[in-house]
Design goal:
There is one protein chain. The chain is α+β, with helices and mostly antiparallel strands and about 280 residues long. It is about 25% helix and about 30% strand. It contains 6 helices and 16 strands. The strands form 6 sheets. Strands 3-4-5 form a 3-stranded antiparallel beta sheet, covered by helices on one side. Strand 14 and strand 15 form a beta hairpin. The longest helix has 17 residues. The radius of gyration is 28 Å and the shape is elongated. The N and C termini lie far apart (about 85 Å).
Amino acid sequence: MFYHTYRKMVILPVKKLPGVYATTKKDGSTYYRASFTYKNKHISLGSFSSYELAGKAYVEACELTTGDKGIGDYDPDNCFLSFAKWVCIINYRDNNMYIKTPIYMQDRLFRYYYDVHDYYIFDVDDLFYYSEHSITRRGGHLFVNEYGMQTNIMSRYGIHNYAVCGRDYIHMNGNNRDYRYSNIQIINRYFGVFRQTDTGSECYLAKIHTNGDYIIGRYDDETTAAIAYNKAADYVNAAGISKDYQRNYIEDMTREQYMEIYTKIRLSKNLIKYCRTVS
């Protein structure tokens, strides 16, 4: 038995539990932290409202390291550890690498977990990145906090923020949770460019949005369509429309090659007519 004291006053006699420590918040209230050491690593198990809960979490963590329970055995109604911590400990037990995010490693890939049946698959090449960056979800998109701002993880594949799955890119095996690089096929890599195959042959449609969508033209290749979009954006801005259009960057092309294509492109009459009405 030991006693907590505050300003030399005895508060409560509490039975000491292994790996459990009492601490206080700024307002003076008491809460409890649990931790344990496994494979010579000190691992925090989280904060709890009572000694009893913290002690049970400690026991549960110890049992995970010696038993054969897996990720699928997690029961939120009967487990005391958080699901993320459950995954971290099992991964450390099985793969000898402690990762602070809820990752379970497999051969050449890993799973990033939210729940037992709710996870995403990534290449092992991204292991270091996602071991340091937690993934958040909003509006069907996945983000990480990076340099003080939220970054859409699709930017790691060269896909712009407003890309739509199924239109601008696809998961080749049909699994929309499989983010391995070999499984991501980019269909539309440029702003304002959309591949069309419903005309009997493949072409690339370029269009720009300003008080509605305006078709710029259809082109045989996506590079020309991307340059057409840039030219349309330049024209719209020059007409006095101050919308901030992000321009397409064309790799492996000299300025002379770019300008040759840029000069030859003719903008649609409807777009020119609209710009003249607002200029």
